[in-house]
Recover the amino acids of this structure.
């Protein structure tokens, strides 16, 4: 079965792999793989970070690099409503690297896992021409929330605030020192594990974590659920400093936020009877906002609007 993913070179490649492997890889294309175990499921996912592609060592300290790499993987557990058990981290390390740097990086991995109730379970070390960090995460979930469950009539919601990680990134790229709150958004994202479990308990029909940007990730959810997502980008909750950073780069702040990757917030569909009292309870228990940004309809793809007018945007593609 061809995985139902949105457009992009990275996803075309995944489709080709799935076609070549056929029944040997029958269920690719969700945030986690699931293995039945003891009346529930093990949820497993993996995420690769490469120096110069996903991070620059000049911008962050090793603990921050480890935290980000682990959070990218833990976020996929959040996206299915799973509770983390632990992580395995494989490092490719250039020859001249001091051991202290490797240990500091693993401190960051352990901190990210510990922040959501997980431990470091193992890993591997190898010499490598370039720094790489591959983090595998393992969790458990009774009823996984997959990407394919959205139905016409559901509301589309997003946790937290968007655009902060991109604002921090653009600031680094421009050779600036980002203000502390933008550095924090880029260097120290949080996997929304507690929020994911809360949303799963309160009727979430489909979920995906925002790793490549809302514009691209919304298309994956639409493709998996075989529905259309209509999203008003003007409703996106913006992170601190996003407005100013977007203005600096002469971009609309909501479009800037919609194309920014690595915020690791959750995009979730909830039935139309999800009530406003639930929002208040979510915000109190999870400590972050929950915002309705659109509606699920019959059809296909993600229709993105700004002030009611159609806009065309693409997600971030590491293969580009
Ligand atoms: Mg994901």
């Amino acid at each position: 079965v061809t995985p139902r993913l949105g457009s992009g070179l990275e996803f075309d490649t995944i489709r080709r792999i799935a076609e070549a492997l056929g029944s040997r890889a029958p269920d690719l294309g969700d945030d986690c793989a699931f293995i039945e175990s003891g009346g529930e499921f093990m949820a497993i996912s993996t995420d690769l970070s490469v120096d110069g592609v996903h991070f620059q060592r000049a911008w962050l300290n090793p603990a921050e690099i480890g935290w980000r790499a682990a959070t990218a993987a833990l976020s996929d557990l959040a996206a299915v409503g799973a509770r983390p058990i632990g992580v395995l981290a494989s490092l490719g390390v250039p020859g001249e690297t001091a051991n202290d740097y490797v240990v500091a990086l693993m401190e960051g991995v352990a901190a990210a896992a510990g922040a959501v109730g997980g431990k470091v379970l193992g890993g591997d070390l190898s010499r490598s021409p370039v720094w790489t960090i591959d983090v595998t995460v393992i969790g458990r979930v009774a009823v996984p929330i997959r990407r394919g469950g959205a139905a016409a009539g559901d509301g589309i919601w997003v946790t937290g605030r968007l655009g902060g990680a991109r604002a921090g990134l653009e600031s680094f790229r421009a050779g600036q020192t980002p203000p502390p709150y933008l550095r924090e958004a880029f260097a120290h994202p949080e996997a929304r594990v507690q929020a994911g479990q809360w949303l799963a308990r309160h009727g979430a029909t489909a979920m995906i974590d925002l790793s490549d940007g809302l514009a691209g990730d919304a298309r994956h959810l639409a493709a998996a659920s075989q529905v259309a997502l209509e999203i008003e980008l003007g409703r996106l909750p913006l992170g601190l400093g996003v407005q100013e950073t977007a203005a600096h780069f002469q971009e609309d702040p909501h479009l800037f936020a919609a194309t920014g990757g690595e915020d690791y917030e959750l995009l979730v569909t909830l039935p139309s009877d999800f009530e406003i009292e639930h929002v208040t309870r979510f915000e109190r228990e999870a400590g972050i906002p929950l915002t309705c940004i659109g509606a699920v309809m019959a059809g296909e793809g993600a229709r993105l609007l700004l002030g009611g007018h159609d806009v065309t945007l693409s997600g971030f593609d590491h293969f580009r």
The chain has a mean pLDDT of 94. The two ends are 25 Å apart (CA to CA). Residues 79 and 208 are 5 Å apart (CA to CA). The pocket of magnesium ion is lined by residues 31, 76, 79, 208-209, 211 (CB under 6 Å).
